[in-house]
Model the fold of this input.
Amino acid sequence: MLSIGEIVMSRFIESFDSVRYTPENRDVQRKIHAEVELLISLLFGRNIVIPEPYSFDSLSFLEIAYKVISARDAIADRIEPERKRQCPVWDPFTLALRPNHKTYREAVSDLIGNPNFILSSLPEITENEKARTKLAQFIGQEDYLGASKHVKQFSKEREGNIDWLEKLDRYFSGHNCIEAEDDTQLLPKVIRWIKNVDTGNIDRELFPLAVELRKALNELEISGIDLTNRGDVRNKGQKVIGDKVFNEVLEYIDGCYNRVISHLVKAEYGVFSTTGSGKEKSIQQAEELSENAANSNELNYTFFGTMKDKNIEDEEMQDRLSNLIIISWEDLWKEILTDNDWIQSVRRLPDDTYSSRLSVAEKDIWNEHIELLAKRLSQLSWELAIKEKGKQLYFKRMILRGSGMLCGKIIGLIIQQPISEPLLQLALGEIAERSPDMIGRAHIKGSIEKCLRRNI
Done:
């Protein structure tokens, strides 16, 4: 098992939260958002720390991690052993195990068999204690074929989940684990900050919502709901407090939860985001209040920057977006993440990412790395799949060279601003124009700089 010191600049990504992307709520934008956050993190040589619950119950993490690890394995034979050893993200994910668990399989089996743990990725059996116990036994015995057949009885759609778990079991059975801290008192303390803080210490703009949240949290506790049990809050809370601030309560509690988790898994950086559309100011404020709660408890994490989720209300737009871009992780592994120039550039990056604390020379190193990424990304093939209107599907696939402008625009659209029909049409229009490589490079550089503007 690794010690914390062996992980280079680890990062926690809130977008992998199990409740963000579930079988009942497949908000494609959130999944793409999480994948782009992972992409940006790996391009800067950052390892991702995954807490136990997200490692097997986060649908977005399972889908994306399976894709990333499979792509790495597919090109592994073509990469020299020394290059793999030097690559800081060859093992992109590190599992933070609780002290009572020694392996990934043990953790998964234990939590699936715990009836108090709500299964976001397998909702069909979350309240079926007998089915859960049987599944836990299959996984504990490393019988993934039996587990797959068992799950298929309840949902054919979830059968693939077991393939993902088996892949991750093999991956984490190596040296990709650390021991997380265990502090059961920290989360309730952080959540209750808003109930105990002197209202005079709350920002005037946040004050009205803080008062509403305090009232709502009191009502939930009086009704017997444990504020640290996010499943109970989601399933029972709305009946108690109504609709007025229910989403804000969820945002506040989720924000507190993820900041505590980031602290307990010892991530050097936390990437936190909201589930709001960007228009819902109160959701943004609830997220900001959760940050205040964490800071008041002096949690050990560095705030890397909030990348706001943008929900897409139009179902047709969601359909079109869901297959707009398919990141070629094999190309990324071959052309960038195992490239010697990239490895050496990452090794030169300063540990600190805040511009106010960087020297002129350190800022130049960051800028040189961005230039390198812009050049490499603009040379990749980006595969697009366009879904036509209506239920009938067909895919039109195009492999593009020198399409850096598209890549830059997509990253910019996803992370920086709400995605709208005109902007997507603009991005797609640029495909046809086949912009020169230099222009594409400039667009990627601009998008990355926007993503990191607060920090470098």
Observations:
- Residues 1-7, 301-325, 382-437, 451-456 have pLDDT under 50 and may be disordered.
- The two ends are 32 Å apart (CA to CA).
- The first strand starts at residue 11 and ends at 13.
- The chain has three domains: 4-180, 186-303, 321-452.
